[in-house]
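G., the chain you wanted modeled:
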Amino acid sequence: QKTAYEIRLSLVGSEMCIRDSLDEIWPLIRRARPGARLEVAGGGLAPDLARQVRSAGGIVIGPVDDLSELFRRATVVIIPLRFGGGLRIRLLEALAARRAVVATPTGIGGLAGHDGEHWLLGRNAAELARAAVRLLSEPELVRRLGESGRTLIEAQYSQTRADAQVQSLVQRFI
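Predicted structure as tokens:
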């Protein structure tokens, strides 16, 4: 079990998401869990944003080709998207890595799964921070969400599942 000083949060999102999170979410988490560590990955991070991350006590990882190592180190992955569309590949990667995820409904993006079973939802900064702090305080919930998230990925989003769906479509048209 990780001590307070080993607890790590990974933040996934655009520069705007990171800025908003540093201003609105991270201070609430740090107030409740001063030993929590924030890691932000991404290439081309604006220099002023990198300074803001560091001044807030976070670590700038820089460009990462494969987020799996970052996710392996994380206790919680936060996906604070407020708008956008498309496939939530970072969410799928975090779930596949058995990480507990805190996200907005937009961050979940309509994926099969349920709040409290596969991830925790927050509709605003206070709810996202509260959910992250809850996870940092409940290692069994972190473990359970990580396992159920991985199970969801294997059941709904694996290559085997995709192959079966394509085969089913092909069979319908033959």
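The two ends are 54 Å apart (CA to CA).

Shout if anything looks off.
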